[in-house]
Amino acid sequence: MNTDSKQPHSNRQEVQEHLENNLMIDTLAGRATEGPPVWLMRQAGRYLPEYQEIRAKFPDFMSLCRNTDATTEVALQPLRRFNLDAAIVFSDILTIADSLDLGLNFVKGSGPILSHPISSPKDITNLPFSEAIERLEYVYDAVKSLRSALGKRLPIIGFSGSPWTQSCYMISGRSEALFHTAKRFAYTHPVATTALINELSSITAQYLLKQYQAGADILFVIDTWGGILSDTQFQSYSANALSDICASLKRMKCPAPVMFFSKGLTEKRIRMLKNITNLRCIGVDWTANIESLQACFPDLVFQGNLDPSILHAGPIATQQHTHYMLNKVNKNTHYIAGLGHGVLPETPIESVHAFVDQVRHYNIKDNNSN
Length: 370
Description:
Blueprint lengths: L9 H8 L5 H6 L20 H7 L5 H5 L2 H14 L5 E2 L6 H4 L5 E4 L3 E4 L6 H5 L6 H4 L1 H14 L5 E6 L1 H10 L7 H9 L1 H25 L3 E6 L7 H21 L6 E5 L4 H7 L5 E6 L5 H7 L4 E4 L10 H14 L6 E2 L12 H12 L3 H4 L3
Parallel strand pairs: 1-4, 4-5, 5-6, 6-7, 7-8, 8-9
Antiparallel strand pairs: 2-3
């Protein structure tokens, strides 16, 4: 177990209280703001030519992720172009899986490939869970370096893939449209799958705590593949895991607000999440009815909702759809402007500017027609 949880957090809280831009922190805390903060999942990455220049210097993606100077530079790149309210450490949702000797590689055109995936319950018991936190030191170094580079300018978001999303890749060995391999394993071996989820939940909590201690202000759990689960499985493998992660963070006296994203979130699924300790914000995709969700859960902050594909239609279409989305936001609740998932490759930079600028010129309280 990680003994760092006993270290004092006063210095971290002091930095957060004196950030030059506190819009994200204030929104997550439920304080009144002039308008919504804005940031983007995958705001750094493949759509930026300056990222491609950095990426070309490394033989593979994980080599880039392990280079502190490179991750700092890549995380700063979108902040130079766009007026964003948060930085996010440059890393990957599969870093924990990578720490467990599963042979992770990123293959061009195929995405992540794990050469030693889980194929039986016995494989789970043989994984080096106790070594994971120490092996992820390069991520904490990336957060420290980013905090040093930013000073007190902006909050930093630290993140992890959710236990279920990590399990999908760990069992299937590669990306699948609906991860039938992982789902089949979960139905065939429910006890082993629950044990895997529990182990990953424990590691994820410690991993997020270490990112907070390194300089992250906000912690984000990304459940990319929660939407492929039935409601019963979502409760078991996504909601329960998030509850365990947040409870562990509270036990370890980590005060950082937690954000969560999953595709296909419905009112029923959000009810499974709404009472989770420390959970302040839920990110939704473009299929969600944000008006209805905000009405049902006025105490939660919602994030996102714009289809990333819209940005491929150009800046004018982006502006129009962004304005329409913001008009739907309830003026009496808190909201973080963003996309319903990450920025897609080959997204026009002008469209990202149009999205951010539209949010900046929009005051929800003045423009809401509700």
